[in-house]
Amino acid sequence: MSLSSDQLLAILGIAIALSAYLSGIRLYLIQKIREIPQEDPEQAEKKYEIQKQLGWLTLADAPIVLSAFLLGLNLLWFPLTGLRFPDWLLSLGLWLFLLAGTMMVIQHFLAWHKTLTELLPIGLLVVIGILILFALMIWKTIRV
């Protein structure tokens, strides 16, 4: 794997920022769970829904944290040990970064879909889609 230290630092910076972002969301959801009274059976469903969100969040959070760890370790390995960092660990760190990013994109699309379908009637969504396509065609025509 031939990535420069600058490229690895950029990816590591993105991984750390995404990890902090996901951590903030996790802490917010945990706080929401703590606000639900333990004895209230009517709120049990709400608590379960938040716990499911935490589970989905883990699908992106765990790989991004592991990726950041491996990328950071790669950058510090030689200066600390004088030994070459194993290529397979660097590759694993990059694949975990890609996996976490993919999971975040999927989760965002699902959340956008849920938000739009709950808030807007389907006819309005179709009109918005057509307007977006029309705007893209105009933009493409102007750029040529």
Throw out a few tags for this protein:
86% helix, mainly alpha, 144 residues, single chain, 4 helices
Instruction: Kindly state the number of beta strands.
Output: 0
Broad shape: flat
- Total number of helical segments? 4
| C-alpha-based Rg, rounded | 21 Å
Question: What's the end-to-end separation, in Å?
Answer: 38 Å
- Bin the strand percentage: under 5%
SSE run = HHHH
Largest sheet: none
What structural category arises from helix and sheet content?
A: mainly alpha
Helix content: over 70%
Low-confidence stretches: none
Mean pLDDT: 89
Question: What does this protein look like?
Answer:
The chain contains four helices and no strands. The chain is mostly helical. It is flat and about 60 Å long. The model has no long low-confidence stretch (mean pLDDT 89).
Q: How is this fold's topology laid out?
A:
Layout: H1 5-35, H2 44-81, H3 87-119, H4 122-143
Helix pairs in contact: 1-2, 2-3
Briefly say what this structure is:
This protein is mostly helical. It has helices at 5-35, 44-81, 87-119, 122-143.
